[in-house]
């Protein structure tokens, strides 16, 4: 599981730094960090589901 998480993070870092689809307009450049982090959010919800199941099963 740790190797999979490491692989996902490594691919995200490599793809976000070397391959850019488009740039935000100048008025929205302060949102760059949020936009870069947004693709990771579904993965965090997926991991949260596993943590929630672990907590519920130990009751």
Automatic annotation (TrEMBL):
A GO cellular component term found in this entry reads:
photosystem II reaction center
Please name the InterPro entries in this protein's record.
PSII_PsbK (IPR003687), PSII_PsbK_sf (IPR037270)
Sorted alphabetically, the keyword list is: Membrane, Photosynthesis, Photosystem II, Plastid, Reaction center, Thylakoid, Transmembrane, Transmembrane helix
Q: Is Thylakoid found in the keyword set? A: yes
SUPFAM superfamilies the record matches:
Photosystem II reaction center protein K, PsbK
Give the protein's recorded name: Photosystem II protein K
Topological type in the membrane: Single-pass membrane protein
Where are its TM segments located? 38-58
Native species: Cuscuta africana
One GO biological-process annotation of the entry reads: photosynthesis
| Cellular compartments annotated | Membrane
